[in-house]
Specification:
single chain; 79 residues
């Protein structure tokens, strides 16, 4: 696994330490990797929504029902 050296601002470092004290993560590396995974998943969702909006703008309104769009969004959230 590639190693990186990064610096945190004081407030961010304190927040990381507080998360570690809750014993949900065993290290700052584990916590930062989890945050990055979450951000990547959110980006997938954002890209999907943007694509839907672009398609709708270029073709008019979507044919998908509200329930279909919600279902598709939920499936993206769950991976």
């Amino acid at each position: 696994m590639p190693r990186q050296s990064i610096s945190f601002t004081e407030p961010n470092d304190e927040w990381l330490k507080a998360q570690l004290s809750k014993k949900e993560y065993t290290s700052k590396s584990e916590l930062v990797n989890d945050l990055i995974r979450q951000a990547r998943q959110q980006q997938v969702q954002i890209d999907w929504i943007r694509a839907k909006l672009d398609r709708a703008e270029n073709r008019g309104f979507t044919e998908d029902s509200k329930d279909q769009i919600i279902s598709q969004s939920k499936s993206l959230l769950n991976g």
